[in-house]
Design goal:
This protein folds into two domains: about 70 residues, 434 Repressor (Amino-terminal Domain); about 160 residues, Beta-Lactamase (2-Layer Sandwich), CATH 3.30.450. Strands 4-3-7-6-5 form a five-stranded antiparallel beta sheet. A two-stranded antiparallel sheet has the order 1-2. The chain is of the alpha+beta class. Helices cover about 50% and strands about 15% of the residues. It starts with 5 loop residues before the first strand and ends with a strand. It has 15 helices and seven strands.
């Protein structure tokens, strides 16, 4: 029902300025009119907002006007990445696309954003509230990392419990190249093997991103990494697991519940991961 002035007559409310629609009829109308977003609908909206004709968009994107028409009507299969990127470039020329608009059009085409942001770009995308959240998580160990294991930010509890990681800057580099990692991780051998299996799963999920293969090649200088990689095992980071750490000062062994999950980012979806280690 539309918002407006109303008055009560008997047991019913009558809305001024429009005819009454029965509940069943209104539900049928909603079912007919409200549909899930499609690539064609999103493309048409972005094109109309910029005042492009189908012919102009087609010409600048290097496709035919009939193809644009078919896309917008949902009469063609979802386009490939090359076509979508070309359409995005053309739409962006007239009026810049927001990160959400670009992401939405790619996802409606069944594609992912493939540009791999640098750690500095990801760090800049973390909001002040997200930075402050790390402080508030204490005494839990908390950090933001990217899929390559680069540490983007961490609280003091994290830095104290994992000495050397702040300086190394990368979880994998620290795991295999820093003796302090072996000192504080009670189950270093099995944990290192898990890290390799998780990295293999990440590489398989992102086969077109050279940053991951470059990381694997770089880690190959560590014999333990090469040995674990050659085993061929694969796994994916669970949302919750347990982990034991040895206090670097007292030597006391503590058990943690480790939680991992993506942090909201409009610009870089699924690229910033929160690692939270809660003492048990």
């Amino acid at each position: 029902m539309l918002v407006g002035d109303c008055e009560r007559i008997g047991d019913e409310w009558c809305w001024e300025g429009r005819s009454s629609v029965s509940g069943d009829a209104e539900r049928d109308w909603v079912a007919e009119e409200i549909t899930a977003p499609t690539f064609g609908q999103a493309l048409r909206r972005l094109r109309d907002e910029r005042g492009f004709s189908r012919e102009y968009l087609a010409y600048t994107a290097g496709v035919s006007a009939s193809y644009i028409t078919a896309l917008e009507k949902g009469e063609r299969e979802k386009p490939g990445r090359a076509v979508v990127e070309s359409l995005l470039r053309c739409l962006n020329l007239m009026s810049p696309l927001t990160p959400s608009e670009r992401r939405h059009l790619l996802e409606l085409a069944g594609l992912r954003m493939t540009d791999t942001p640098a750690p500095g770009e990801l760090h800049a995308a973390i909001t002040p509230d997200q930075h402050q959240a790390l402080v508030l998580f204490a005494p839990a160990l908390a950090a933001y990392v990217d899929p390559c294991g680069n540490v983007l930010d961490a609280n003091d509890a994290w830095n104290a419990a994992l000495p050397g990681l702040l300086e190394d800057g990368n979880v994998f580099e620290w795991m295999f190249g820093n003796e302090l990692a072996r000192k504080v991780q009670v189950d270093w051998e099995s944990e290192a093997r898990r890290y390799v299996q998780w990295l293999r799963g990440t590489v398989g999920r992102n086969p077109d991103e050279p940053v991951f293969t470059d990381l694997v090649n770089d880690l190959g200088r560590f014999p333990e990494f090469r040995a674990s990689w050659s085993e061929g095992g694969v796994d994916f980071i669970p949302p919750v697991r347990t982990h034991r750490l040895r206090d670097p000062q007292s030597g006391e062994i503590r058990e943690y519940s480790v939680q991992a999950g993506p942090v909201y980012s409009e610009i870089y979806p699924d690229r910033i991961i929160l690692l939270l280690c809660v003492p048990i």
